[in-house]
Design a protein that fits this description.
The protein has helices at about 5-15, 20-30, 30-40, 45-65. By secondary structure, the chain is mainly alpha-helical. It has one domain. Helix 1 packs antiparallel against helix 2. The termini are far apart.
């Protein structure tokens, strides 16, 4: 698997899958050092926050529609 593909997989696992860096490293055969570098460089924590915020907003919108 190409490193760019592993980067995308790792980011998805972290942001959307709620997996730890240790779990991601074991699953994709990546070092923790690489994962910490990617996490910082590509700001995964910000992406995770935005993903969770969008998910919560969508759920709230669905509840509001249901109440109408």
């Amino acid at each position: 698997m190409a490193k760019s593909h592993k980067l995308k997989q790792a980011q998805k696992f972290y942001v959307q899958g709620n997996k730890t860096l240790g779990e991601i490293g074991m699953e994709l055969d990546l070092s923790r050092r690489t994962l910490f570098y990617w996490k910082k460089k590509y700001d995964w924590d910000k992406r995770k926050f935005e993903y969770e915020h969008e998910k919560d907003a969508f759920s709230q919108n669905c509840l509001n529609l249901q109440e109408k």
